[in-house]
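Take a specimen:
=====
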Amino acid sequence: MNSKRSGHFGMCDVFTLISIQDGQVAGVQIVENTETGDLQCQAPVEMLLTKGVDTLIVNNLGQKPFSLLKAAGVEVLLGRGLTVKAVVDNYLAGRLEPLTEEYVCEGQEHPYGYCQA
């Protein structure tokens, strides 16, 4: 949980899957991202969907994975924080906001800074 977060969804080495029950962390699972070369990020999205992910918290996310996740009914949140624990704490406290089109990464400048690919 104290691991640093990746700057971009498709470039991360692993995904940290967190189970929440009754407002508490009930489980943590680390899943390797074997498709870091998939520039469209379709393979990681499909893998996360097979794992039953219903909420995804990201620093940055491209248009293709954003559209795929939204179409599958996954809630995508913009999560600031240097570590997984910091972001989970912010999530549990209700301090995260939905990722919107204005934050979707296309390699350009964002309202909060440059895409960290």
